[in-house]
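Lab notebook: predicted structure, single chain.

Context: the supervisor wants predicted structures on file for every construct in the current expression panel, including those that have not yet been purified. This is the next one on the list. No modifications to the sequence; it matches the entry in the shared construct table.
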Amino acid sequence: MYGYQNPGPSQRTNIRVNAAIKNLLSNDLPVDIFILTDNGLLSYGNFRINLAAGLEDTLILKLNPDWNLTGKSLIPIDINSEKPELTNDPQPITTLIPVTTTLEILLGQAYYNQGFFNVVREYSQMLGVDNATIEIQLGKDNNTIIQGYINRTANKNGTPRIMGGKEFRNWIRTQFKFNEMMKVDIISPIAIRVYRN
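Prediction complete. Output recorded below exactly as produced.
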């Protein structure tokens, strides 16, 4: 949306869409904006899947929005038709998969007994805003996900405190001993994975 609001001089698509949005709004017509928040937890094998990017082409093809000119001159494709046969020929991977950032957290008395931990300033901007819900995957190979939240008011410098509550505290106590290190993968601003080494 930033590109549509503030198109650069060489961004023809953004300039065109910006003008179309302004035209609708100046005529008191609605502009619907749909947002998909990807928690980053979807994966296939060892590969993380960007859900928004994966849906984009299919949604454009299915909805055929007027503002999207890419492919308009192509022969329409029925996305519900029979799928082509898969081959064993290797296909190049054209999408870069983001590297997950991993932190180590020492489970001292407060963290161990209360079900929360702080994230140092260096990684602060990788996590969401104050009071945002965060999904916490318990264990590296476990599909158990609990809901916590991000508290940015507990620390004077605004760094995030991840609040997992009783369920998180109980999981920590079954998996770790006091003063052991816990690994934390930051998967997205609203999703983390916690586990033992």
